[in-house]
């Protein structure tokens, strides 16, 4: 892992021996900075906060999260407790970024110079039944962040986009050069809207912004609505898991540590401010994919998950998996494949996610065994007493 003191200037040589573009130089030091992380109790947000506090001696992090009950709030509380236990310069505010007064107060009081917007209502299927939550958090909330960046001296805005913006694009792997004008869910539409809004604010107000299209993030203490977590819960309860599109789905599963590594590197290079021929700012704006660049078939993924759950003691060795699997059609808003072209990320930052799926699922299974299975067993022992 690279230290945060590195300055990139190395020229990459492609496998064919031809010279490609030069890696970017870091132009933002995170030492001595105040960083605002929205969605700080979330899966990605909490892992990012912990990484920053561990890596940097002189950093202040302000976290905001509305702590919604979209999934088990206890998981969010557990993540926050881990951050608190580090005993570092950390402030947490329980509030929604859709509250403009609160957002403006945060910026006025703490004056963050780097902002990482990870707060969002997540999930494709939930956007069909609860659209209001997506408009409030993903559109109004992000607008409030952009306005606050406009009126304060923010050196770099990094924000979460999503692989869902690619919709049902037939061309794979997905490239950031592809047209993404055909979202197939409201969630995807809000994420594409974030990119458009960020571009407008970069152009109008010269705010350096970087969007990150995340691909199927997974790992320990993740989101229970994600397939790997939901499958585990159901299998443990003896329920049947539904495998969509009859198993003919591929996902570019990306391990949480790889996502965080990508964010930390990107935070340290803001797109350069430049003036165009018209005398107006050339938008200091860029978007990257962060994915594993290796899509996995859903049935293979389920097989690996099963094996690791047995190895971790979450499920018994003689568990009858076949009787707990059901192949079903594609769901509304879903796509058959996600596959990230991460070439620009690798060229600019010398990094691409590479954690093998088995290694990542093994880490998840071990965490799950410690968090849920031990808790379950202790309840049973208490009940017997």
Question: What can you see in these coordinates?
Answer:
The chain has helices at residues 43-55, 73-85, 100-110, 126-129, 131-150, 186-205, 227-236, 256-267, 298-311, 343-349, 357-384; strands at 11-13, 19-22, 34-38, 60-65, 90-94, 114-117, 156-162, 209-214, 217-218, 241-243, 250-251, 254-255, 274-275, 281-282, 285-290, 296-297, 325-327. It has 385 residues and is an alpha/beta fold. It has one domain (11-218, 253-294, 335-355): NAD(P)-binding Rossmann-like Domain (Rossmann fold). The strands form 6 sheets. The protein has a 7-stranded parallel sheet with strand order 5-4-3-6-7-8-15, sandwiched between helices.
List keywords for this structure.
single chain; 385 residues; alpha/beta; seven-stranded parallel β-sheet; two-stranded antiparallel sheet; 17% strand; disordered N terminus; disordered C terminus
In short:
Helix content is 39%, strand content 17%. The protein is an alpha/beta fold and 385 residues long. α3 packs parallel to α5 and α9 (298-311) packs across α11.
The H-and-E topology, N to C, reads as: EEEHEHEHEHHEHEEHEEEHEEEEHEHH
The CATH homologous superfamily is named: NAD(P)-binding Rossmann-like Domain
What's the story with the biggest beta sheet?
Answer: 7 strands, parallel
Radius of gyration: 21 Å
DSSP summary, beta strand count:
17
Would you tell me the structural class of the helices and strands?
alpha/beta
Helix content: 25-40%
* N/C terminus separation: 49 Å
CATH level 1 name: Alpha Beta
* Strand numbers in spatial order across the main sheet: 5-4-3-6-7-8-15
**Total tally of structural domains:** 1
Low-confidence stretches: 1-19, 378-385
- CATH fold assignment: Rossmann fold
């Amino acid at each position: 892992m690279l230290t945060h003191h590195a300055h990139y200037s190395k020229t990459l040589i492609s496998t064919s021996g031809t010279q490609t573009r030069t890696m970017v130089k870091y132009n933002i030091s995170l030492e001595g900075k105040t960083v605002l992380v929205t969605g700080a109790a979330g899966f990605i947000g909490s892992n990012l906060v912990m990484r920053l506090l561990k890596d940097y001696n002189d950093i202040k992090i302000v976290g905001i999260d509305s702590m919604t009950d979209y999934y088990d709030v206890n998981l969010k509380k557990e993540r926050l407790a881990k951050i608190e236990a580090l005993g570092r310069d950390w402030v947490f505010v329980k509030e929604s970024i859709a509250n403009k007064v609160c957002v403006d107060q945060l910026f006025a009081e703490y004056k963050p110079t780097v902002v990482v917007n990870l707060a969002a209502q997540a999930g494709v299927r939930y956007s069909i039944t609860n659209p209001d939550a997506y408009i409030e958090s993903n559109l109004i909330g992000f607008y409030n962040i952009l306005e606050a960046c406009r009126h304060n001296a923010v050196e770099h805005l990094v924000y979460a986009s999503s692989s869902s913006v690619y919709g049902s694009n037939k061309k794979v792997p997905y490239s950031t050069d592809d047209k993404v004008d055909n979202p197939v869910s409201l969630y995807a539409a809000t994420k594409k809207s974030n990119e458009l809004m960020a571009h407008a604010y970069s152009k109008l107000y010269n705010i350096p912004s970087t969007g990150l299209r995340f691909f199927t993030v997974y790992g320990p203490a993740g989101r229970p609505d994600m397939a790997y977590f939901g499958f585990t819960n159901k299998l443990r309860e003896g329920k049947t898991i539904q495998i969509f599109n009859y198993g003919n789905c591929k996902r570019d599963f990306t391990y949480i540590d790889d996502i965080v590594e990508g964010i930390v590197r990107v935070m340290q290079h803001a797109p350069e401010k430049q003036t165009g021929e018209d005398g107006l700012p050339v938008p200091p704006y860029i978007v990257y994919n962060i994915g594993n660049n290796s899509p996995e078939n859903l049935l293979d993924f389920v097989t690996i998950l099963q094996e690791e759950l047995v190895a971790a003691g979450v499920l018994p060795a003689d568990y009858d998996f076949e009787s707990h699997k059901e192949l079903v059609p594609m769901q509304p808003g879903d796509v058959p494949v996600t596959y990230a072209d991460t070439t620009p990320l690798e060229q600019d930052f010398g990094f691409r996610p590479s954690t093998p799926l088995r290694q990542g699922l093994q880490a998840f299974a071990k965490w799950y065994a410690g968090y849920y299975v031990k808790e379950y067993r202790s309840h049973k022992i208490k009940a017997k007493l």
